[in-house]
Specification:
By secondary structure, the chain is α/β, with parallel strands linked by helices. It has helices at residues 3-7, 20-28, 34-43, 47-54, 61-70, 75-89, 92-96, 100-103, 152-162, 171-178, 184-191, 195-202, 243-252, 291-298, 317-328, 348-354, 371-376, 382-394, 417-426, 454-474, 481-499, 505-522, 526-529, 531-554, and strands at 104-107, 113-114, 218-221, 259-262, 266-269, 271-272, 278-279, 305-308, 336-341, 359-364, 401-409, 437-440. 45% of the residues lie in helices and 9% in strands. Helix 15 (317-328) runs parallel beside helix 16.
Length: 559
């Protein structure tokens, strides 16, 4: 390029003419300013130019908005092409790399330490990513991080990743990426892009690292299982409010009284105390006299990201104490907070604390609306949940808070999810993410939609496809185009998951048995709360009975 052309490389003056190829070259250049990308995304008429911008990884929210409105190709198709382009540039090690084994640690509610909360596979070693001591006990938050950060399991995962081997225990992230979902692994690569090269250079052959070279900068904390809800898909492992119901359930089922398995490493027991309350004595307050807590306090200036869940993290005093400490140390404006919260009773103090931080990412664990919410997330009140949502959406000071619904899909809400999507879109929230993130529930297995009878699956499939047609008619403007594509993609992913396995009749029977007994314990009624779903179940059962009778008749037998 000549001197004038070089000077005007990113000049958008109307007297400078560029061909389509030249405009693509301009927007693809790594030094192209973000404001230029925004202007071109808003005004350029050529889809090839817009797509060239789309495939960049450094776009502002404003640029993304223009692209969503103006690109005509299907989002799923563009994402597949992006993945192909990126994979072509990546080595096998880069594709499977995740920063978590180098800069992260996670706690369970019982205080045990694990590598990552995504490691939920119970059939691989180490089970659930839990870190064990030589004597078979688990490391806990009471231990010093230096004692386990070069644990043999962590070293093995590091070796595999740097060799381009996708660790088996990372299967959940692998499956999400295959289904077009942004996994935790993908997120860490975006947040810590420098760590791959550093890991290649500074990780020893056996997978060990110098802890000074790789300090903990991202910590996943569960300050116990204190919770204000006892959701149908949960249990005493992650909610102390479940203790009484679980004790009664083991009683009516003639199971070992109050006993439950915490992950794979410990059997715990809910005990009925003399005063009529219920407790699990082995659920420790790990943050007391804690090596991990002391590490956080001593290194608080270096930690840039925390992930909180529980229990319900926002009602936990230790969580609020940590936020106060970060604010007092003057580093809150450099720290990102991530949450899974049920939104059913967030203290006002926490709302005020959030306003100090660089960014707050909230996954709102909401599985239904109105009476469906209250049934699934007992004893939560929909009005309280909705009030918290609208506070984040409207109150001054929450500009750096990003919240979106993260729904756990189960048999209970597989049909009513559609009502929830329609309701959510009609609210026209200003700050809340406008589509619902859907996480498929795998356990407990009796709530997994894969175990619905095929007749019910067929009904759900038909209803979803009718809904897809309806939203394409209802929301036709170009501003809604991206939402429609995203919603359709999510719903089709649900159907793919639902049909991906044959139903287990044992789990289907257990669903009805468990639901009926829990209804009795909680004085609720599934059929009253979810009459349409009950009707679908009844019709499927009647059809099954008719089919069996016909089979017996043809065989010369009586039913």
């Amino acid at each position: 390029m000549n001197e004038i052309a070089e000077k005007d490389r990113f000049n958008l003056a109307p007297d400078i003419y560029r061909t389509m190829e030249e405009r693509i070259e301009m927007v693809s250049h790594p030094d192209c300013p973000s404001e230029v990308l925004e202007i071109v995304a808003e005004h350029d008429l050529d889809q090839n130019v817009l797509e060239a911008i789309y495939f960049r990884n450094d776009l502002t929210d404003k640029t993304k908005k223009f692209l969503r409105e103006r690109l005509t190709r299907e989002q799923a198709e563009l994402e597949r092409e992006r993945a192909v382009q990126q994979d072509a540039k990546l080595s096998s090690a880069q594709r499977v790399f995740c920063s978590i084994p180098w800069n992260h640690i996670s706690t369970n509610a019982d205080g045990s330490v694990r590598m990552c909360c995504q490691m939920i596979q119970s059939d691989v070693s180490p089970v659930y990513g839990t870190l064990y001591k030589p004597d078979g006990s688990t490391y806990t938050g009471k231990d010093k991080p230096d004692d386990y950060r070069n644990h043999e399991d962590l070293k093995r995962v590091r070796r595999e990743m740097l060799a381009g081997i996708d660790p088996e225990i990372c299967k959940l992230c692998t499956d999400e990426e295959r289904n077009g979902i942004v996994s935790r692994r993908t997120g860490t690569k975006q947040r810590y892009p420098h760590l791959f090269e550093q890991a290649l250079e500074q990780t020893q052959e056996d997978g060990s690292i110098d802890l000074n070279d790789f300090p903990l900068t991202y910590i996943d904390l569960r300050f116990g299982n204190k919770c204000n809800l006892k959701c149908r898909s949960c249990g005493p492992t992650d909610s102390n409010l479940w203790y009484e119901d679980y004790y009664k359930m083991t009683e009516v089922n003639n199971m070992p009284l109050g006993q439950f398995r915490y992950r794979a490493h410990e059997t715990m027991t809910v005990e009925k105390l003399e005063d009529g309350t219920y407790d699990v004595s082995t659920m420790i307050d790990w943050w007391e006299d804690s090596g991990l807590w002391n590490y956080i306090v001593e290194n608080i200036e270096n930690i840039d990201r925390y992930y909180f869940t529980g229990g319900e993290p926002t009602i936990n005093q230790k969580h609020r104490e940590l936020l106060d400490l970060i604010i007092e140390r003057g580093v809150a404006d450099r720290v990102t907070l991530e949450y899974n919260t049920n939104m059913a009773g967030i203290p006002s103090k926490v709302f005020e604390q959030w306003k100090h931080f660089k960014y707050v990412q909230i996954g709102m664990s909401i599985d239904g609306i109105y009476e469906h919410f209250e049934y699934i997330r007992h004893p939560g009140k929909w009005t309280a949940c909705e009030r918290s949502m609208r506070r984040i959406d409207t109150e001054e000071g929450f500009e750096r808070v990003h919240a979106g619904i993260a729904l756990t899909l189960s048999i209970y809400n597989v049909l009513h999810l559609l009502d929830m999507i329609w309701w959510h879109k009609d609210q026209n929230f200003k700050r809340l993410q406008d589509w619902i993130i859907i996480h498929n529930l795998y356990g407990p297995t009796h709530l997994n939609v894969q175990n619905l009878p095929n007749e019910v699956k067929q009904f759900i499939d038909k209803r979803y496809n009718q809904f897809i047609s309806d939203i394409q008619i209802r929301w036709r403007s170009k501003e809604d185009r991206y939402w429609v594509r995203k919603t359709i993609q999510n719903l089709r992913s649900v159907l793919t998951h639902m049909w991906d396995a044959e139903p287990n009749p044992v789990d289907w029977k257990r669903f009805h048995d468990w639901t009926a007994k829990m209804d009795t314990i909680r004085s609720e009624t599934f059929a009253t709360t979810m009459p349409e779903l009950q009707r679908v179940f009844d019709e499927a059962r009647a059809k099954e009975t008719r089919t069996r009778s016909a089979q017996l008749k043809s065989a010369g037998k009586k039913g």
